[in-house]
Design a protein that fits this description.
alpha/beta; Four Helix Bundle (Hemerythrin (Met), subunit A); Rossmann fold; six-stranded mixed β-sheet; four-stranded parallel β-sheet; about 55% helix
Length: about 625
């Protein structure tokens, strides 16, 4: 489908060049051939109409959204109308509009099969908002564009508003005004009018419809009268902010807000309240089976309000297809049955790379939406954003990675693998860092093949008692001689503690190793078919794990480290993070040691380099 529209775009560009040459030429021979050329151009447009008709007939209902099929139908009508243009100037204008519309249809063809809500995500600067604004250039009626930038001010002095109708509003103002901020070649008064007029015209058109219905149907019973768009808007408004009501002033063609029995002008509503009015009004005024494209739909609104509002509006206009662009993870994850669409790049006027991004791969939608557009590689780590893991790795890797804590080490392993299995066009990858937790060298090597690095110690806290880190902290207040004495005292006390708590250390390491071994075991129903088989399988798992061997190996290793007074070996094995970093380090190195160590890592470039080399990502 996209290929067909790209060919149409090439053809229309050639026609524009031809109309330009004809209109600018003073050559008598060229002018003599004017009428023949006009007829030729009309014929070319009719050929385009034939192609579009074939496209329309070939669009399978089950694979294409109603909104896209209607949009193609509108384009077909526009092509047919253009072929009836009477002179060269009209032809040139018609072909220019067709070219702009064909480009937009080409863009949307990449997501034409999506029938539910789409949320476009992407990195800052990828062109999401520019794409939305470009949609406003469409001359086709069944597309509404609501911009991120909203200047919602009602002006009674806006030109011609007294007779402004809903039809006029639909044809002129259901478009983005963002581009008006970027024009340097137009009068300031015109720009101001374009930016501020839509809100005024929308309110006026709604009030005028109320007045018209009241006049035309004044002899009807109330139950027989047409339900105005304003009445529909008010039903939705009452679900959002019931404490504020409105009175329609049909004489002045405006509405007046009322709260706590006090009336006040519309402009005294908050930005969020006016925004709700603007959103509801535009969605209700959109034509049937249309696209509704909304940039930053959470603007001016808190989460409780915008989630409720857009759920109501999507249900209200179930005939339409909504396309949102948003950075807000809470908004994205709250959308029901939504497809995340990744915008790799939009380069005006006619290049875009939009691709649906599957979320059924084991990574939560919120996380995928947050990370898919990152321009830096992803680093998954354990913990939360308040944890020691995140604080340390943010200091070490923030220039090169987007650091994302995801809980336990199982999640780090899972998300790293899954993220690296995303399609290549995502153009990003991930690494993971986990605690060693007693893993064997064979297990560590296997994880490295999946871009997952194990720390050189069982616990992240043990990084803080790296000798260079300790020297950096103690060196803030002590001489080199005192530093050596303090470090030696700390090491001696740590050996004493670990000798005393050796059973506890062996227990923790053994438990971690057995937990890891058990997670890799499962009951295969193709092999285990009876309850007796299940019992045999469990017995086999116990024999395969051999916990006694694990315990013996841990005890032997720890004894060797303690007897050899091997501090680096002990740091790798020690599991007594609270007693060591939170206890001994405070007493024998520096009070408040942990916080000071984190601060030194954040500030000392050489220390950061040293730790990165130790970790080996």
């Amino acid at each position: 489908m996209k290929r067909v529209f790209d060919e149409i775009i090439k053809s229309l560009k050639k026609l524009i060049e031809k109309t330009n040459r004809l209109s600018q030429s003073d050559d008598p021979v060229t002018r003599k051939a004017y009428e023949e050329e006009v007829e030729f151009i009309r014929g070319e447009i009719e050929s385009t109409s034939t192609i579009i008709n074939k496209v329309q007939n070939s669009l399978p209902d089950e694979d294409t959204s109603v909104s896209y099929r209607v949009l193609v139908g509108s384009f077909q009508d526009a092509v047919q109308a253009a072929s009836n243009s009477e002179d060269l100037n009209q032809l040139h204008e018609s072909v220019s509009l067709l070219l702009s519309d064909a480009e937009k249809l080409s863009f949307l063809s990449s997501i034409a099969e999506l029938k539910d809500t789409a949320v476009i995500v992407g990195a800052n600067g990828s062109g999401k908002s520019t794409f939305v604004n470009s949609m406003a250039g469409m001359s086709l009626t069944n597309l509404t564009v609501i911009p991120a930038q909203k200047n919602l001010y009602f002006s009674e002095k806006t030109y011609g508003r007294e007779s402004y109708s809903i039809g006029q509003y639909q044809s002129v103002n259901l478009k983005s005004t963002n581009e008006d901020y970027k024009q340097d070649d137009q009068m300031e008064s015109q720009t101001t009018q374009r930016i501020f007029a839509p809100f005024t015209y929308m309110i006026t058109a709604l009030v005028n419809e109320v007045a018209q219905i009241s006049t035309d149907e004044r002899g009807f019973n109330l139950s027989d009268r047409t339900v105005s768009t304003w009445d529909r808007l008010m039903k939705i408004w009452e679900k959002m902010i019931p404490e504020i009501t409105f009175r329609v002033d049909s004489t002045a063609r405006k509405i007046i807000a009322k709260r706590n029995n006090q009336e006040y002008p519309l402009n005294r509503l908050s930005d969020g309240e006016k925004c709700i009015l603007f959103y509801i009004g535009n969605v209700l005024l959109t034509s049937k089976d249309a696209y509704i494209v909304v940039d930053e739909p959470e603007t001016f609104l808190n989460a409780a309000i915008y989630n409720k509002l857009w759920d109501i509006l999507i249900d209200e206009r179930s005939d339409c297809q909504f396309i949102f662009t948003s950075h807000n993870v809470e908004f994205i994850t709250a959308r029901r049955n939504a497809t995340i669409v990744w915008c790799k790049q939009f380069t005006p006027p006619n290049h875009i790379d939009l691709r649906p991004l599957s979320t059924g791969r084991g990574i939560p939608t919120a996380l995928l939406a947050e990370l898919a557009g990152s321009r830096r590689k992803i680093l998954f780590c354990e913990g939360t954003e308040d944890s020691l893991d995140y604080q340390i790795f943010s200091s070490l890797y923030l220039d090169d990675f987007t650091v994302k804590p995801v809980g336990g080490h199982d999640k780090v392993i899972e998300y790293t693998r899954v993220f690296n299995e995303l399609p290549t066009w995502v153009n990003n990858s991930a690494v993971g860092i986990i605690d060693r937790d007693g893993l064997t060298d064979i297990e560590i090597s296997a994880l490295q093949n999946d871009h997952i690095t194990c720390l050189p110690c069982n616990e992240i806290e043990m990084l803080l008692i790296d000798q260079d880190v300790m020297r950096s902290v103690v060196g803030l207040t002590e001489t080199d001689e005192i530093i050596d004495l303090k470090l030696q005292s700390f090491k001696d006390k740590m050996f004493e503690l670990c000798s005393k708590e050796s059973e506890r250390i062996v227990y923790t390491i053994t438990k971690n190793l057995i937990d890891s071994a058990l997670r890799s075991q499962f009951i295969d129903s193709s092999e285990v078919k009876t309850t007796a088989d299940i019992i045999n399988k469990i017995d086999h798992i116990s024999l395969a794990i051999q916990p006694e061997s694990i315990i013996t190996a841990c005890q032997t290793h720890l004894t060797q480290v303690l007897d050899g007074h091997d501090f680096e070996g002990l740091r790798m094995l020690c599991t007594l993070k609270g007693q060591v970093v939170g206890g001994l380090a405070n007493k024998w190195l520096q009070s408040g040691y942990s916080k000071l160590a984190i601060g030194r890592i954040a500030k000392d470039v050489d220390l950061q380099k040293h730790l990165r080399e130790k970790i080996g990502v």
